[in-house]
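Exercise 7. Given the encoded structure of a 878-residue chain, write a plausible sequence.
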């Protein structure tokens, strides 16, 4: 490293010849006999290491400062290629105006101008080494500050040479600053930090981690984690370290228990150098005890809210006190307690009145809901559905009943020594034997009245109840009490509606000749429970009978009341002998009179059928109602009750058909005419009338329900109408709408042979005499001579009246059934009018005589004209 002389040109000018290769080889050492070469080790690229980050260039000089070797990093650092530098003196690279600065000289501020380059060589020759800061000239003209370290070496021939390493000062300062920042950060970090080698032994640890582990630094370094950390977490941490070291996948925020009862968050990362070599793993540990406690509180609050939500959702749709009590008791076990019981006042389950005055000294309660984590004799002794529980006022239960404030028992001793229900209650000893150590008794309060108690208890190793649990139990009891009170009130309304509905339905049905009847009514199970479904059997004149089934849309007391008014209207109009379509029209015209005070009006469907057993003719009309079903039997017959023909059980059903009757619109719509269909039915045919609750189900087309109904009726002959009703009700779909079901089944037969006689007479004066004679002969044949005179007299009056006003054939018909029916018909449509005759009048007394002598009489209209009829009671057999 000498300065330039007269014979030395600028580095960019002509340069001196380079020393021969032999001289360079000698500078490296003498030739020696070498042992046979070993197999070369596997090559591995070291790029990316610390030296690469420093960019350490190597330069070899002779004692005159002439460059012998110039490394590629030196070329990269200063821009001079080796062929430009080798053989030249290095002093030519010193930047103009810069002076070398030996190690220990100030490094801040401007560097003074360069001194003689020989000074560096003299220092090397004197001490054998030199290090300091140099300003070297880059090929493109700017200066580069470097730190150099040079050493004087001797080759095998005794010749001296200089080996220098050079690095850019800026890179060295960057590494120094990084280390200066990282070391204090490592040591002063509030987080626990540790470095492990590839054997997973501690090689560095900060003070924060030694405090967390409770092990001094000197007892930590060189040990593995299972030798330092407490046993509760050592195995898990060791497994995590092996996983990170093997896979390179970091583990973040693994929470483990600490030695002091707290919690630690541990994270591991694998350490690698720039060349990808695994150096070990790093560890960061944070005390998260407060975070865990906060998370535990949040989770506990979440579980409490979830329990409240579950209880509310489970009880929301229930309107049965017993089911509410069962759901409440079962929902809190085991999420909140190990055992539970719901104890209620005896009036609550049946919808009775609650006590207006405070509970007495001794109160009997009923346990309607229980929950338990296990079963056995002790549990049966302590808990039991339907058990009557005696509660004394001086007991814990009694105090809660009287004050409405919850009670908390927090120890087995308190449970034994305090009166829980009454002195000597065996249930208390059973609770102690089950290991119950904590108990909460919460009042079920609704509208300021205590309905009962919610009792929850914990046993075994479970934590005892605390103040927060008491608040939760009180909230559960408050919400449940509202549901229980709603169910109690619903039961009262249900019972009232059902009582009203039952009082409006027929208490018994008549037994008209030629007709056999069976019926069923099934209340619904939702809303106000009672609905507007009804059925009726109305005896009509001449042995005819009207069969009615209807359904008022809606539920509750209003629907039941509307049903009652509607049924009364139908019965009243039926007594006027109206045709079915006319009757439905008249009922529809009543409109608001049937709606009562219902602002939104009313709507009802109805089917009305009239059957005449003497002619076996059936007339049916419907108003928006499901179609009736007619079951036509096979050929086999046996004699049934009331003279009806019953299908032989062995004889198959011939046909089951939905009657093709115009549907019409529901009653209450208004402004629509109705149509009726008249047909002859064979002996023993079965007519089935029903409401839509029998065939409708959720997510099912009504045609499916109708086909199911037909299949049941076709499965076997309806030899028993009662059994047929049961079979039909058994088809109710499980998912059907909770609607009422009204069912009326009638077997339609004729009157016994010879029970009717009819004649037609021309409109001549002789018709009266002939009619009277034929009636006398018929009654004599029927052995009804007691009725001969009065019947002949009344027939004479009616036939005479027809002769006076009508001009056409006159019909007379006599029917023997439950009474004696006599009908006189003529083509005149105008009904006869009863009038008061004077003492001297010769006529006008015919209808008065009929009205006084008969049991009842009336007029009905038909296609041929009108028919005047009267009935006489049959004589009582001796």
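Solution.
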């Amino acid at each position: 490293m000498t300065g330039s002389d007269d014979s030395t040109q600028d580095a960019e000018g002509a340069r001196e010849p380079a020393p021969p290769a032999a001289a360079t080889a000698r500078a490296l050492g003498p030739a020696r006999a070498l042992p046979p070469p070993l197999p070369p080790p596997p090559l591995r690229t070291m790029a990316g290491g610390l030296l690469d980050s420093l960019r350490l260039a190597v330069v070899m000089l002779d004692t005159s400062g002439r460059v012998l070797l110039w490394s590629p990093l030196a070329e990269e650092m200063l821009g001079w290629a080796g062929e430009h530098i080798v053989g030249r003196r290095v002093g030519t690279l010193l930047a103009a105006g810069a002076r070398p600065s030996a190690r220990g000289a100030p490094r801040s501020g401007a560097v003074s101008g360069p001194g003689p380059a020989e000074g560096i060589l003299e220092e090397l020759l004197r001490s054998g080494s030199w290090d300091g800061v140099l300003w070297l000239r880059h090929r493109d003209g700017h200066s580069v500050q470097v730190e150099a370290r040079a050493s004087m070496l001797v080759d095998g021939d005794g010749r001296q040479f200089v080996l220098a390493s050079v690095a850019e000062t800026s890179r060295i300062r960057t590494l120094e600053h990084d280390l200066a920042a990282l070391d204090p950060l490592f040591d002063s970090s509030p987080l626990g930090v540790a470095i492990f080698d590839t054997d997973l032994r501690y090689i560095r640890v900060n003070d924060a981690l030694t405090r967390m582990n409770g092990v001094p630094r000197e007892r930590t370094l060189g040990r593995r984690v299972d030798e330092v950390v407490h046993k509760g977490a050592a195995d898990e941490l060791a497994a995590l370290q092996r996983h990170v070291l093997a896979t390179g996948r970091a583990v973040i925020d693994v929470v483990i228990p600490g030695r002091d009862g707290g919690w630690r968050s541990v994270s591991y990362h694998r350490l690698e150098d720039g060349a990808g070599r695994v150096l070990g793993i790093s560890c960061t540990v944070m005390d998260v005890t407060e975070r865990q406690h906060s998370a535990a509180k949040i989770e506990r609050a979440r579980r409490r809210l979830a329990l409240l939500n579950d209880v509310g959702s489970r009880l929301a749709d229930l309107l049965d006190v017993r089911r509410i009590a069962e759901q409440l008791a079962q929902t809190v076990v085991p999420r909140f307690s190990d055992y539970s019981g719901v104890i209620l006042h005896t009036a609550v389950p049946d919808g009775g009145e609650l006590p207006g005055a405070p509970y007495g000294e001794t109160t009997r309660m009923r346990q309607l809901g229980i929950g338990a984590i296990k079963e056995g004799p002790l549990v049966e002794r302590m808990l039991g559905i339907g058990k009557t529980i005696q509660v004394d006022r001086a007991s814990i239960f009694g105090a809660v009943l009287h004050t409405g404030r919850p009670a908390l028992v927090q120890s087995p001793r308190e449970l034994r020594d305090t009166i829980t229900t009454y002195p000597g209650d065996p249930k208390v000893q059973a609770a102690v034997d089950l290991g119950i150590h904590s108990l909460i008794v919460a009042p079920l309060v609704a509208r300021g009245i205590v309905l009962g108690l919610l009792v929850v208890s914990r046993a075994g190793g479970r934590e005892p109840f605390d103040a927060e649990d008491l608040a939760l139990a009180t909230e559960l009891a408050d919400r449940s009490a509202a549901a229980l009170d709603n169910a109690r009130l619903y039961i009262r309304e249900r019972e009232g509606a059902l009582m009203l509905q039952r009082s409006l339905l027929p208490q018994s049905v008549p037994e008209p000749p030629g007709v056999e009847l069976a019926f069923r009514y099934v209340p619904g199970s939702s809303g106000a429970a009672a609905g507007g479904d009804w059925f009726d059997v109305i005896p009509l004149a001449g042995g005819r009978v009207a069969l009615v089934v209807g359904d008022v849309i809606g539920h509750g007391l209003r629907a039941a009341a509307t049903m009652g008014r509607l049924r009364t209207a139908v019965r009243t109009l039926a007594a006027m002998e109206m045709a079915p379509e006319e009757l439905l029209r008249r009922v529809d015209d009543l409109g608001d009179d049937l709606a009562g005070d219902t602002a939104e009006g009313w709507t009802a469907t109805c089917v009305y059928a009239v059957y005449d057993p003497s002619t076996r003719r059936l007339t049916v009309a419907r108003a928006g109602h499901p179609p009736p079903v007619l079951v036509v039997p096979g050929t086999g017959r046996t004699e049934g009750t009331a003279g009806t023909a019953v299908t032989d059980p062995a004889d198959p059903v011939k046909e089951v058909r939905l009657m093709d009757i115009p549907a019409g619109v529901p009653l209450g719509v208004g402004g629509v005419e109705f149509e009726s269909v008249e047909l002859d039915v064979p002996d023993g045919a079965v007519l089935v009338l029903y409401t839509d609750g029998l065939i409708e189900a959720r997510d099912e087309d009504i045609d499916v329900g109708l086909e199911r109904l037909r299949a049941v009726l076709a499965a076997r002959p309806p030899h028993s109408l009662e059994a047929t009703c049961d079979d039909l009700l058994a088809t109710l779909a499980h998912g059907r709408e909770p609607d009422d079901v009204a069912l009326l089944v009638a077997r339609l037969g004729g009157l016994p042979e010879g029970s009717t006689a009819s004649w037609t007479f021309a409109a001549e004066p002789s018709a009266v005499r002939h009619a009277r004679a034929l009636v006398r002969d018929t009654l004599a044949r029927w052995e009804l001579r007691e009725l001969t005179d009065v019947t002949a007299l009344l027939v004479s009056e009616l036939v005479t009246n027809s002769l006076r006003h009508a001009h056409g054939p006159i019909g007379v018909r006599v029917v023997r059934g439950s009474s004696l029916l006599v009908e006189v018909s003529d083509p005149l449509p105008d009904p006869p009018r009863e009038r008061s005759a004077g003492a001297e009048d010769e006529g006008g007394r015919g209808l008065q005589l009929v009205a006084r002598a008969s049991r009842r009489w009336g007029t009905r209209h038909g296609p041929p004209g009108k028919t005047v009829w009267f009935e006489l009671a049959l004589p009582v057999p001796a």
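Remark. Residues 1-47, 105-116, 637-650, 839-843 have pLDDT under 50 and may be disordered. Students should compare their own answers with the one above.
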